[in-house]
């Protein structure tokens, strides 16, 4: 029967000020999802890797299986699927861990059935998986599917833009050993935004689009300034101010919380600078243990391996 | 003694969703400001052209003279200036009428003293003029000084970006014979923004930056959708919904209120399309008289003539 294995990279949701709007795919770490189609209509799931013991193996509650099933249903495939998820990303780390499994399930189904990534169908099916755990947001799903810096203009109807990234910048992602649930990280945010914050945030997001397109690191460093989510969410991350200061002092061209945290990301001009930032950030977490990943911006999203 | 005359083009403040953040310079109509420096320290102003009878000729209350004086003071010029303002733009039309005079005063002083446009000093001096009538906003001053599509990231400290515009698009600007004061058009706006609007507006502004940079008219048409100011301010503009519909039906790639109104603008792919849009919009105003200007995006802002 047909089968496929895909790798889905990590992603920085929001990228600072771009709350629910921007996402950036980062290579070198991610989830690996395999699918094997079979005649029996039953779906099954196995899971290995990071946080595997916390991932449901009931196919109706596993995001990869739900996303794969959503894709297969749209394609009117009547058989079942055996899915294996090899988690590289933590579940609640803020690096798009659950979204990567969702995208992986849908993308693996797409490659198995059609030998290609049917991008919009994969995105819609991955949304069905994500809806199980964190609502209908594209900020990780989109960059993890299309790669690079991705802009969500609208979820329903689906409207997005692959934004240009001129330089081969890297990111350092440092995850402290504290747990922040996506749901509680959302509930801490206010539903009303003051006009001054609204205006500054729009300006910063617009400036970031230009900074990535032109490779203007000095502008990115000024514009990657989140006035909305970071002030609230940093209270959930011990030593955040010290960690951010350490990243900027080490030469980062932009540092904030990745997605809903607790991972803190720093953009840097190249691999060496990213490693310097990552080391400085890990030190600034003090007695709190942390894990660091450094990787380049992923030019490609979900890919067959 | 030294003298200079400058032309300052019209401007579309906000450009739809970019409230207080984006501005777009439009050529072919604007204010013309002349300055003649003299030894006597007294400043004087004369005014001709559109709405001239409503423009103060007291040098401490005339925006062009105040802006020129602010520039001259920074340059430590101790003499006086005789200024003439030839208004091409209406005072409260929503095409940057008062900002054009402010920029003109400062720019004329810059050319007269230094034979060049000292951009940041001109912007700061023009802000002093604008503060007399509508507060410290750059959304018209910036594009009128540097041309094209301009992004204000911060007023204090001054931080802005000249954004790339790939295509030679035109605009139709249709001004109905109703008066909307900038101050009342601001007071109608809420000081708190709902999160859903905040997110959509950020996404649209980001998408517009990309659409202008790449010439993607289809994306611009979707993204030029102002969820914040337009719903409130359109109540001050009779027949606004009909006028917008007429512009979009006539092929516009984006239509909204220019600045605080009452001018309605439509972006179009070329001169012929802009004229079609302008005619359709003027007809849609029905029995309300209007004036129409069609012009290309101004690649250059304030210039010596």
Question: How many β-strands of chain A, per DSSP?
Answer: 12
Structural class of chain A: alpha+beta
Biggest interface reads: A-B, 39 and 39 residues
Number of H/I helices of chain A: 10
Which descriptors would you attach to this protein?
homodimer, 305 residues, alpha+beta, Ribosomal Protein S5, domain 2, Alpha-Beta Plaits, 2 domains, 4-stranded antiparallel sheet, 10 helices
Overall description:
2 copies of one chain form a homodimer. In chain A, 58% of the residues are buried. Chain A has 2 domains: 3-163 and 300-304, 2-Layer Sandwich (Ribosomal Protein S5, domain 2); 170-296, 2-Layer Sandwich (Alpha-Beta Plaits). Chain A has 305 residues and is of the alpha+beta class. In chain A, helix 1 packs parallel to helix 2. The mean pLDDT of chain A is 96. In chain A, strands 1, 2, 3, 4, 5, 6 and 12 form a 7-stranded mixed sheet that branches. Chain A has a 4-stranded antiparallel sheet with strand order 9-10-7-11, with helices on one face. The first copy, chain A, has helices spanning 63-74, 97-114, 119-130, 141-146, 182-187, 195-214, 217-223, 229-233, 240-249, 271-284, and strands at 3-13, 22-38, 44-49, 80-87, 149-154, 159-163, 170-176, 192-194, 255-257, 264-268, 290-296, 303-304. The longest helix of chain A is centred in the C-terminal third of the chain and has 20 residues, at 195-214. The two termini of chain A are 18 Å apart. Chain A binds chain B through residues 17-22, 151-154, 159, 161, 163-164, 189-195, 198-210, 213, 219, 222-223, 228, and chain B through 17-22, 151-154, 159, 161, 163-164, 189-195, 198-210, 213, 219, 222-223, 228.
């Amino acid at each position: 029967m047909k089968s496929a294995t895909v790798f889905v990279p990590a992603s920085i949701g929001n990228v600072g000020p771009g709350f629910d709007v921007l996402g950036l795919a980062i290579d070198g770490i991610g989830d690996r999802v395999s699918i094997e189609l079979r005649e029996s209509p039953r779906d099954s799931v196995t899971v290995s890797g990071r946080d595997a013991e916390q991932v449901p193996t009931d196919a109706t509650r596993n995001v990869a299986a739900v996303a794969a099933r959503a894709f297969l249903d749209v394609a009117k495939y009547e058989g079942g699927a055996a899915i294996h998820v090899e988690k590289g990303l933590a579940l609640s780390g803020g690096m798009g861990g659950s979204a990567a499994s969702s995208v992986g399930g849908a993308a693996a189904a797409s490659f198995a059935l059609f030998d290609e990534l049917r991008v919009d169908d994969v995105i819609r099916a991955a949304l069905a998986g994500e809806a199980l755990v964190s609502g209908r947001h594209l900020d990780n799903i989109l960059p993890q599917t299309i790669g690079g810096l991705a802009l969500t203009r609208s979820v329903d109807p689906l409207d997005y833009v692959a934004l240009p990234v001129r330089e081969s910048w890297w990111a350092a992602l440092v995850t402290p050993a504290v747990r922040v649930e996506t749901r509680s990280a959302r509930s801490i945010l206010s539903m009303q935004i003051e006009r001054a914050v609204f205006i500054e945030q729009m300006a910063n997001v617009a400036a970031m689009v230009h900074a990535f397109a032109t490779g203007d690191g000095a502008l990115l460093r000024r514009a990657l300034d989140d006035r909305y989510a970071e002030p609230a969410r940093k209270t959930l991350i011990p030593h955040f101010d010290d960690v951010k200061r350490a990243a900027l002092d080490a030469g980062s061209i932009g540092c904030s919380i990745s997605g809903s945290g607790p991972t803190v990301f720093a953009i840097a001009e190249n691999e060496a600078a990213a490693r310097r930032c990552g080391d400085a950030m890990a030190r600034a977490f003090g007695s709190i243990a942390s894990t660091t990943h450094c990787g380049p911006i992923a030019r490609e999203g979900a890919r067959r391996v």
